[in-house]
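Notes for week 9. Today we move from apo structures to complexes. The key idea is that a small molecule is not decoration. When we ask for a structure prediction with copper (II) ion present, the ligand SMILES becomes part of the input, just like the chain. The input block below holds both the sequence and the ligand string. Read it once before you look at the output, and try to guess where the molecule might sit.
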Amino acid sequence: MHRTECYKRLPLASAIALVIVGTTPAYAGLLGGLLSGDGESAGDGQPSEVNGEVGFFSEPFAEPTIQVDGEQIATGDRCIMDASGALQCKPTAGTIAVLGGGRFLYLNALEGTENAELAVIAQFGEVSVNDQSRVMTLDANDQPSWVKPLPNDGGANPDGNDSTTLTGGLLDTANNTDTNDGALFCADVVFLPDGRMMAVGGTDYYSEPGVDGLPVGVVELEGLKSSRIFDPASNTWSQSGDMQYGRWYPSLVSLANSDVFVASGVTKLLKPVYPEDPIQSGRNVAQTETYDIENGTWSNNGSAGQRSLPLFPRMHLLPNGHVYYNAGGQAFNPFGQAYDQALWNIVGTYNPESRQWTDLGYAGLPLRLNETGLDALSTTLNPTNTDPDQVERLLGDLVGETLDDPTAAISQLLETPVDDQALERAIGSGMRGSTFSIQLPLRPDANGGYHESEFLTAGGVPTYVAAGSPGGYLPISSSRIDTVTTNGADMAYESRLTGSLNQPRWYGSGVMMPDNSVMVFSGGTRDGVVATGLEGAIIQSERFDIETETWKPMASANRERTYHNTAVLMPDGRVLIGGHSPINTAYLSFINMDELGFADYAGRDPSFEIYTPPYAMRDDRPVIERAPVALMTNGGVFDIKTDRSDIDQVLLIRRKATTHLVDGDQRTVELPIVDRNSNKVRVKMTGNRAVLPEGQYMLFISYESDDGMRVPSESTPVRVLADPSATDSPLAQQLEPAPAEAEGSDDGLVGGLIGSIGSGGSLLDPIFDIGSGATSAVPTLGQLQDGTPQLMNELGIALEGGFAVLGDTITSLPGATEGLIVDFTDQGSGG
Ligand SMILES: [Cu+2]
């Protein structure tokens, strides 16, 4: 075997061997990579080609200095070694929030991992430190400057965290340091109505077992109960109330009344064992809590408010005030498993008024791999698999050529003829790991009400319900729109596939653009958490057109950004791209194998790039000449003065605050134009606070040019305020009587949803009628009930329902998919 072939085929083993024997090349390579001038400072990047069709990226730019031993040192390097021999590095934007006025707050990720010399899993408890924060300001010419907030790490737990250790201090190092008991990493972020930003959760690092004074142990990452608030007016952090539960990787959503909802997260990531509370062991935090915006306190939502969810669950606020879970999350392999993870495939909503969850359906299509198909896929793709034959085949895949066509590859692995479309649908259903979830523009109906919410997810890794892992390893290119129709408390769920991404993508950052498109940036060709360091980077962006529901390749970035990358819409309609803080190669130390075609693993990347989309290169963008700076959700009208007479779309886009592809408050709302007078449009505001929760928004107008392109303006800032005299709750906002689409059904809303999913009429395009139990496309699960037995029962029903159905339907399927795909249409005849 050729030497290069050997490296290509077994990089993981090679990396481990190199580190274990401590050969200098690997280590020197690591330090070399970290210390060499990698040139993030302005001027060193390759400018991407300027092209009117695909847009272009700016040169990368990064903070110019590092603080070392009390001094600010100017350097183009990512890290500098301090007097103690530890590397001090520039932070990356693993979390970012758009503050307005050209300012961006960003938070580092995995601070300290660069100091793991042997294995991060053994040393992270000791070498990790609290993550830094930064405010970057871009002036009118894009010249950046940086400010360090005070305290720079957010200030949680200065006297240590009250850790949930198993050994009470006997065999852990939870109390030996106060430098890593309050990390911002793994917190979710949300804007409060007044423009301050709250970070909830975070990390307490320690070794368990571990012994004080020893540099190695088994790391534990424990979720914090902390919530801390950043004030952009003073660049300072302050502490707010503690949650009842420590949460690592939770998600936040602002409710219609401006309170903040939190769900999921795990208390102990690696050893989720809680002897005093056994039912909590082995899973994420099922309890949800609500933050009282007036008092700054958290309260438990009670037993009906519990739900098993993946880490960083993708959640959004619906126009009826419910919180919708869109069956996406962070597939954190190999430690994010939970015994109840089958439930993560079920989409549902949380009603803040009744504090109860309602199940809406099985995510994606009513298709599911049967036991055989599931087994074949999951065992083949599960990296912990020990079957040598399959491992050989898997490894061949992992380290061979990048999978351009995972469907074909999977078909090949299965050695079974498979209908491509059916397989595509099956692997595109259920929960997605590491996908973005973008709420498409909420559009008013003829009466100005908002009743149909659409959510786009694309790429990520599929989930295999019965597998021992919450996610697959190879990303998919599937793209899906899930629709929730709301009429007060009545809801219906529907899902359809769109055109696929042009390449499978793990951890792509999605951005809703003001021209009715969604862009995706960065990410990897494989799951960079399962086998860290072995993912290839994807630098090419893609654009999804809402009208055609197709994806198109766009410009390529300069830098490779895989895990912990970010992208946010800037107020002028361009996009700020940043982040990239991978987990140490193979959970050991940073070993950069980028020359072998893998992503850049020379530590984290502190740089940013600005993407300019085609519309921002035009000189015929409309201009907002006058618009309100504050709007009340009272159903009133307001005027926008522009330089054109053909403005036909007005959007309010909420400023983004995001981490891990999650922004629970991401929303784009179209306001109806009710009148126009030459260059002035009169626009109607909603009276529904669940459509436009209080906060900071960007107002964009646009028109469609003669060449067919939608051309948006730059935005003006708008603060949305609640009308204190409006007493209607979102649930009171019902549809006007007799919706137009009702087709031969007297329950109009549901009737309008009856129809075929997809284009064909085969058995794999089942009729979907949520209103009728007999033809329901989903197992009827009911709501999560109080306490343990019900929860376990829920899991049992979920599994049982699925397997019962497959038994009956398997024989009626077309030959090509027999033995692999089942659907739920025949549920009534179960047995
Ligand atoms: Cu992470």
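The chain has four domains: 1-90+501-569+575-612, 96-306, 617-732, 750-829.
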